[in-house]
Amino acid sequence: MKAVRRIVPGIDDHILFVDRTTTRWMEHWIGKQYGPAISTGQTPRQVGKHRPPVTTPVDGLYLAGCGAGGRGVGTELAADSAIECAEHILDDLGRTPPPSWIPPRDPAPTLPASIWRNLTRPAPRRTRQPENPVAHH
Predict the structure, then answer these.
(1) How far apart are the first and last CA of the chain?
(2) Which single residue of 1, 38, 42, 54 has CA 20 to 30 Å from 76?
(3) Under DSSP, is residue 1 helix (H, G, I), strand (E, B) or coil?
């Protein structure tokens, strides 16, 4: 946090909480060697245009990796997030990346409203039909 405070003066005014841990503890907690973990909730409400952005309300503070921006899955998602973050940084600095550096981006795909509603609300609970004890074969 000391390094972050030097780079982003006043950051403490925007922090809601700080959660610190080690990869050794994460390895123990989630049962994966070296402690890899997904950083954001993997829910329909955090994909596509609903994903946390790479920009933040704090000037000069950007987020990159599997937890913000980007498209795709796994390494592709983290790498795309880093590229998107770099684009924002360059834009904020008034610089333009060379045309060969970044291929054109397609807009994020969108789901029809009917499918989106089904993804974001719980499915109805199905009750098991009682067996008919009188039926004979």
Answers:
(1) 73
(2) 1
(3) coil
pLDDT at position 120 is 54
DSSP one-letter string for 79-117? HHHHHHHHHHHHHHTT----TTTSPPPPPPP---HHHHH
Dist CA 134 CA 70 (whole Å)? 59
pLDDT at 55: 92
Residues 51, 70 contacting (CB under 8 angstroms): yes
Task: Say what percent of the chain tops pLDDT 90.
Answer: 9
* pTM of model > 0.70: no
Instruction: List Cβ neighbours of 33 (8 Å cut-off, separation of 6 or more).
Output: 27
